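Hey, I'm writing a tutorial for new members on how sequence and structure tokens pair up, and I'd like a real worked example in the thread rather than a made-up one. If someone can provide the structure for the chain below, I'll link this post from the tutorial.
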Amino acid sequence: MAIAAVLCFFPVFVNLARGLRSVRPTQLELMRSYAAGEFTVFRRVRIPTALPFLFTGLKVASVFAMIGAIVVDFFGDALTSLSAQIKNDPSQVQYERAWSEILVASILGLALYIAIVVVERLTTRWQPRQDSQ
């Protein structure tokens, strides 16, 4: 779990940092003209601007998490883990079972990705979608 967490941390961190710094200067000037404090600027301007970047990082991290968990599990000692079964089934001529386990891993990865997309659509309804062009 620690390796999967490390794999996920950096894409999320880099995207979130970029999103927090991508505020337009005119937005900051407007908030300063309202005499808004730093916390108010952070809450009303920086966080809404950073949300699309955060979700992009989460989508990348969800893919890394699934790949990292399977690869790390592959080199572990657990004999009943999914990656151990994927590794052992072809040697026992159980190809259908191995492919079904690969399909289950793929479906889990897709479900995690789709869940992040749904949460993104719900939380950033105000943001115009890029794919509508």
